[in-house]
Give the backbone structure.
Amino acid sequence: MRVLVTGANGQLGHDVVNELRKRNHEAITTDISGDMDYLLDITKVDIIDKVIEINPDAIIHCAAWTAVDAAEDEENKEKVYAINVLGTQNLVKAAEKLDCSFLYLSTDYVFNGQGTRPWQPDDTSYAPLCWYGQTKLEGEFAVSKLKKFFIVRIAWVFGLNGKNFIRTMINIGKTHDEVRVVNDQIGTPTYTYDLSRLLVDMIETDKYGYYHATNEGGYISWYEFCLEIYKQASLSTKVIPVTTEEYGLNKAGRPFNSRLDKSKLSDNGFERLPNWKDALSRYLIESGLK
């Protein structure tokens, strides 16, 4: 299978490309910079013709603006929209002409984050709390018009090829005696190495639709995640639980309830991701942080 991967230089795209090649698929790497097969700017309309020339059997769309707080700055909003919405629309138009399958990575931020009930993949009670979430939702709407689409919502992502919460907390833990972490936002982490396996599993099928995918192991707070990070990394830094309001440093609204129901994966024969504690352990070893 010939698969075009956008954002191949990023945290998830890097692992997706490796997984594709591991299975002897032809991975076509694209990004706006780096050692790529094609340097493509998805915000430009001419991307449509270029993707058609590449002629993939599937597109895995990992490219996105993911700096949630920076997305709230007025000077960035147009660029965020161009990447997350217009760029996605351009790729969708190419996929329509090619009649190829399309896998779009979305986020728990498309929901309003209220309540405690886990969000179902087919829920339509959206209402994002921030510009990032709104633009990712509009990207979903564009992709959902295709016949052959996967929309996979993920949360709390970490991987080897980029910045993430784990790396940040360990760096802070090595230089501070204590750290404040929110305890009223609930979800589950997602390791890109594990996720990439699932995404390739998906495009090898025609089981299209909306899905949720995070690691298993139950729902936790960022505070509980940090406690486990320090435990596994053998750091004695004191972790102080605070509310989102008490923390007060984020520009963007964040969902309190990021519980994503993943039962649809099993229902469709997909193997769910390993326990998040196991994923954390493997990540710490593979990244040299442990």
Observations:
- The chain has a mean pLDDT of 96.
- The longest helix spans residues 74-98.
- The two ends are 37 Å apart (CA to CA).
- The first strand starts at residue 2 and ends at 6.
